Amino acid sequence: MTYQAKTLTQSDFWADTTDLKTLRHKLLDLFCQLAYQEGDFVLSSGQPSSYYINGKQVTLHPQGALAIGRILFSLLPPDTQAVAGLTLGADPIVSAVSVVSAYEHRPIPALIIRKEAKGHGTKAYIEGPNLPEGAKVVVLEDVVTTGQSAMKAVERLRAANYTVNRVISLVDRQQGGAEFYQSVGLEFQTVFTIEEIQERYKQL
Question: Binding site annotation covers 16?
């Protein structure tokens, strides 16, 4: 489905007022309509796949971004001091959660983790507000396969003396990521499993 600029009706405005249970159902449909594709693909891990999830089709969608921000904000532990993720996939996600947190009167800053250190200025790996040493940061991800991408963010944050114990993903492809996080002592949550997306995709 291609995103169309159009004259909007009241039914198009669902992400800001819908209860979280209904919001999750609507976000699932958006993933099925915009992000999920079947065919022959090669993943960033190098693995071949019969399907692909382009999460940015949803995370950069106006209603999708707001829905993601609200849902992920609701999953954060009460002591969360920041959300962070590896560029580029996590950039719109951490931004959405941070904006929602301000509206919820519980402001949580966002951090973006570069894949390579900036080549000028501070030459930093981490972009965003400077936090106190030991600050509790939750890493966010769009799609988890093996778990290695978000782990890079975890390692960079820990090297900067932040505390990271949890990863939350929008989609778990169920190809070892959850088991990997468990093996390294990280708590892991996902909004959707690939089974759930594929089942709903067939219904639609």
Answer: no
Assess if CATH 3.40.50.2020 describes domain 13-203. Answer: yes
pTM of the model: 0.93
Residue 142, annotated ligand binder? yes
Residue 143 known to bind ligand: yes
The string of pLDDT tens digits covering residues 95-133 is: 999 999 999 999 999 999 998 876 655 568 999 999 999
173 in a labelled binding site: yes
- Does a cis peptide bond (omega within 30 degrees of 0) precede residue 88? yes
Report whether 156 belongs to an annotated binding site: no
Does 145 show up as a binding residue in the annotation? yes
The answer to whether the annotation marks 115 as part of a ligand binding site is yes
Contacts of 26 (CB under 8 A, 6+ apart): 14, 15, 18, 63, 67
- 120 annotated ligand-binding residue: yes
In this predicted model, what pLDDT tens digit does every residue of 52-76 receive, in sequence order? 999 999 999 999 999 999 999 999 9
Q: Does 158 show up as a binding residue in the annotation?
A: no
